[in-house]
């Protein structure tokens, strides 16, 4: 990693386990084929984010995230159904249930990673964070988001997942996101 990069959007996230990641990729493929939605071209890494910022000191962030991951154990989470964030370009997503342990973990990530960040996205602030896995975003309209909800409404999107990493995902503009660092959760004690 190479120090501070101005203007590059990045996130501290957990990548989904292989089986769940494949399910998400299949859904992205179906949404592209049926509705022309191309979420996977910008975010090809199935994940959900704990913190997002416009600018990180990537060296400092890597140090903080690797230290936090080394002290944290793998985390079980559940997803539940289908959600939508409204607006001119709605985001259709799979909500991740915000359990007490996940809430404490995200607060720890937010607090630790904030020292390496400027221009934090306040949607990820612990008081307003809604954990989710994005399915349709970026090129959506209210009509295509509604069509995506109709297409996916009868799917079983309740998954039991074990998260095994903290990762740094970065990207800028219309360029695909890339993995800038992946750190295994190696601790044995209860998370925070």
Q: Structural class given helices, strands, pairing?
A: alpha+beta
Low-confidence stretches: 1-7
Shape label: globular
What is the average per-residue confidence, as pLDDT, rounded to a whole number?
Answer: 91
- The proportion of residues forming helix, as a percent range, comes to 25-40%
Q: Describe the main β-sheet briefly.
A: 6 strands, antiparallel
Number of strands: 11
How many helices does DSSP assign? 5
Question: What distance lies between the first and last C-alpha atoms, to the nearest angstrom?
Answer: 28 Å
Task: Name its key features.
192 residues; six-stranded antiparallel sheet; globular; disordered N terminus
Topology record:
Layout: E1 4-5, E2 9-15, H1 18-35, H2 39-42, E3 47-57, H3 58-71, E4 75-78, E5 83-85, E6 91-95, H4 100-113, E7 117-120, E8 132-136, H5 142-152, E9 160-163, E10 165-171, E11 178-184
Antiparallel strand pairs: 1-3, 2-3, 2-10, 3-7, 4-9, 5-6, 6-8, 10-11
Briefly summarize what is shown:
By secondary structure, the protein is α+β, with helices and mostly antiparallel strands.
How would you explain this protein's 3D organization?
It is a single chain. Strand 5 (83-85) and strand 6 form a beta hairpin. It contains 5 helices and 11 strands. The chain has helices at residues 18-35, 39-42, 58-71, 100-113, 142-152, and strands spanning 4-5, 9-15, 47-57, 75-78, 83-85, 91-95, 117-120, 132-136, 160-163, 165-171, 178-184. With 192 residues, it is α+β, with helices and mostly antiparallel strands. The chain is globular. Strands 1, 2, 3, 7, 10 and 11 form a 6-stranded antiparallel beta sheet that branches. Strands 5-6-8 form a 3-stranded antiparallel beta sheet. The relative contact order is 0.28.
């Amino acid at each position: 990693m190479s120090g501070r990069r101005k203007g590059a959007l990045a996130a501290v996230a957990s990548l989904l386990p292989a089986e769940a990641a494949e399910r998400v990729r299949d859904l992205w493929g179906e949404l592209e084929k049926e509705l022309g939605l191309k979420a996977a071209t910008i975010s090809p890494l199935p994940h959900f984010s704990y913190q997002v910022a416009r600018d990180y000191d990537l060296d400092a962030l890597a140090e903080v995230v690797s230290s936090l991951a080394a002290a944290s154990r793998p985390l079980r989470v559940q997803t539940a159904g289908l959600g939508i964030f409204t607006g001119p370009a709605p985001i259709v997503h799979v909500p991740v249930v915000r359990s007490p342990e996940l809430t404490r973990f995200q607060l720890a990530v937010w607090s630790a990673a904030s020292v390496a960040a400027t221009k934090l996205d306040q949607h990820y602030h612990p008081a307003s964070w809604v954990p989710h896995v994005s399915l349709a975003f970026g090129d959506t309209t209210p009509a295509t988001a509604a069509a995506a909800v109709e297409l996916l409404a009868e799917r079983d999107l309740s998954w039991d997942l074990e998260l095994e990493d903290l990762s740094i995902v970065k990207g800028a503009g219309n360029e695909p996101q890339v993995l800038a660092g992946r750190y295994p959760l190696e601790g044995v004690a209860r998370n925070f």
